[in-house]
């Protein structure tokens, strides 16, 4: 078959050696090491954040999980994984800011949904209940509010307008919004995943 007759490439080679099809992802090609590596290198807010390091999606994911745990101390380890992995598809598709996602529409959202479903299948997680999905969304918006004010140059009023009102958080959770070096974000994301995954398997 000539190159002109071949279908366009829709897969990405992972450092683990896996070849992940972005349009029809298989859970067999999902590896947590690839997710941690990729998310630690994807910048939130298109890199427009203060500080000597980018604020990565890996660190945002840890912040969302920390907020979820603070707001819902009775959350199970499996629910903690849902918080932690809510943006997992971004390890291959990147972090697209909300206004651009809205402009792109359903095509991007479909890719994201299929990737997240493959991630859940890989780690034995059910689709979240509507209540858990709402909890994750709320934690994500709380995180976005604090990131916007602390890192991305938003005023408190702007952040409240776009992400909802501020929610008081304890210092250890807020500290998760201070940007770390890439290697630290990768290691801490992976360590938290392993802790939650082990707890999930025990319950």
Can you walk through the features of this model?
This protein has 203 residues and is an all-alpha fold. Helices cover 56% and strands 3% of the residues. It has helices at residues 32-39, 57-71, 77-84, 90-93, 98-104, 106-122, 130-150, 156-163, 171-174, 182-202, and strands at 11-13, 19-21. The chain has a two-stranded antiparallel sheet with strand order 1-2. A hairpin with a 5-residue loop joins β1 and β2 (19-21). The model has no long low-confidence stretch (mean pLDDT 93).
How would you sum up this structure in a few lines?
The chain has 203 residues and is mainly α. The chain is 56% helix and 3% strand.
Give the beta-strand count.
2
* Nearest-integer average pLDDT: 93
Within the largest sheet, what's the order of strands? Answer: 1-2
Helix- and strand-based class?
mainly alpha
The DSSP helix count reads: 10
Topology (elements, then pairings):
Blueprint: E1 11-13, E2 19-21, H1 32-39, H2 57-71, H3 77-84, H4 90-93, H5 98-104, H6 106-122, H7 130-150, H8 156-163, H9 171-174, H10 182-202
Antiparallel strand pairs: 1-2
Helix pairs in contact: 1-10, 2-3, 2-7, 2-10, 3-10, 7-8
Features:
203 residues, mainly alpha, two-stranded antiparallel ribbon, 5'-deoxynucleotidase YfbR-like HD superfamily hydrolase
């Amino acid at each position: 078959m000539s190159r002109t007759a071949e279908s366009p490439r829709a897969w990405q080679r992972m450092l683990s050696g896996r070849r992940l099809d972005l349009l029809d992802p298989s859970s067999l090609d999902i590896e947590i090491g690839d997710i941690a590596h990729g998310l630690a290198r994807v910048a939130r807010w298109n890199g427009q954040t203060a500080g000597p390091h980018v604020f990565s999606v890996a660190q945002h994911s840890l912040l969302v999980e920390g907020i979820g745990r603070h707001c819902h101390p009775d959350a199970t380890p499996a629910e903690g994984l849902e918080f932690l992995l809510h943006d997992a598809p971004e390890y291959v598709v990147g972090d697209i800011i909300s206004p651009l996602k809205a402009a792109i529409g359903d095509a991007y959202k479909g890719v994201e949904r299929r990737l997240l479903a493959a991630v859940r299948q890989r780690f034995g997680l059910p689709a979240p209940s509507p209540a858990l999905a709402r909890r994750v969304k709320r934690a994500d918006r709380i995180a976005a509010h604090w990131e916007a004010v602390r890192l991305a140059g938003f005023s408190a009023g702007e952040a409240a307008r776009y992400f909802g009102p501020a929610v008081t958080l304890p210092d250890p959770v807020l500290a998760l919004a201070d940007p770390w070096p890439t290697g630290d974000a990768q290691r801490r994301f992976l360590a938290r995943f392993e802790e939650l995954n082990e707890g999930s398997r025990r319950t």
